[in-house]
Write a structure and sequence with these properties.
This protein has 229 residues and is of the alpha/beta class. The chain has helices spanning 18-24, 29-35, 70-76, 100-108, 123-129, 183-205, 210-213, 217-222; strands spanning 47-48, 55-64, 83-89, 96-98, 114-120, 133-138, 150-151, 155-157, 160-162, 167-171, 174-178. It has one domain: Ribonuclease E inhibitor RraA/RraA-like (Glucose Oxidase, domain 1, 3-Layer(bba) Sandwich), CATH 3.50.30. The longest helix is centred in the last third of the chain and has 23 residues, at 183-205. The structure holds oxaloacetate ion and magnesium ion. Oxaloacetate ion is lined by residues 69, 98-102, 121-122, 142-143. One of its GO terms (molecular function) is oxaloacetate decarboxylase activity.
């Protein structure tokens, strides 16, 4: 897969198995991140455009040029049912690359949302549509359509490597990328983790302390923690 030269659109990509994507969609970002071994998180400056936004889908990746949303329109043609567009930029840009018109177009193609290391606008309309978007900025300043980028090449978006077809999960806690080969395994680990958390929740609810639940009293005593009146 070509990566270094701009102006490439890969039209045949391998997507994660839809049943693994469906399984992952049941979990929050924190659970998926822990289940994966604490890797794959995007930087926390990416925020949901509205509070209840959440998404889970397979990545159609885009490498944008600053202040230019041309490649988002090129990407729209590559979207299949269940995809999430993940857009990185060749250098930092907080212009409003995306709004309700593009959201309407993405949705019509089966798109489930957008993650963009750039700005977006029309957030009231995006909320009304419930089209989930995670972005680094909200910015009314628009963009042009003048320079080539690429679609469906591996990108680094907000510090995370994303390959076309990888699974992207996003909610109020952040955005995490699951490599498509690991999707089944991570979904299973996430389910085990949730089951474990449910039993812990029960014990916390009953008043038990983390000090006992996690066996922390011994190590604290060994380090010499003293209780004084
Ligand atoms: O048109 C644009 O360039 C971005 C936008 O506001 C929209 O998609 O609605
Ligand atoms: Mg608009």
């Amino acid at each position: 897969m070509e990566h270094t030269r701009l102006g490439v659109v890969h039209t045949a990509i391998t997507r994660a198995d839809p049943k693994d994507v469906a399984a992952l969609s049941a979990f929050g970002v924190a659970t998926v991140h822990e289940a994966m071994g604490r890797v794959g998180l995007m930087r926390p400056y990416l925020r949901p455009a509205y509070t209840r936004a959440r998404l889970c889908g397979t990545a159609v990746t885009v490498l944008l040029q600053p202040g230019d949303n041309w490649m988002l329109h090129v990407a729209a043609e590559q979207i299949e049912e269940g995809d999430v567009v993940v857009a990185a930029c060749t250098t930092e840009s907080e212009d409003g690359f995306f709004g309700e018109l593009l959201a309407t177009s993405f949705r019509a193609r089966g798109g489930r949302g957008l993650v963009i290391d750039g700005g977006v606008r029309d957030v009231s309309e995006l909320e009304e549509m419930d089209f989930p978007v995670f972005a680094r900025a909200v910015n009314a300043k628009g963009t042009v359509k003048a320079t080539l980028g690429s679609v469906n090449v591996p990108v680094v978006c907000a510090n995370a490597l994303v390959r076309p077809g990888d699974v992207v999960v996003a909610d109020r806690d952040g955005v995490v990328v699951v490599p498509r080969e690991r999707a089944a395994e991570v979904a299973e680990a996430a389910a085990r983790r949730e089951a474990g958390e449910e039993s812990k929740r029960e014990r916390f609810r009953a008043g038990e302390l983390g000090l006992d639940l996690y066996g922390m009293r011994g190590p604290l005593a060994e380090l010499g923690l003293r209780y004084e009146d």
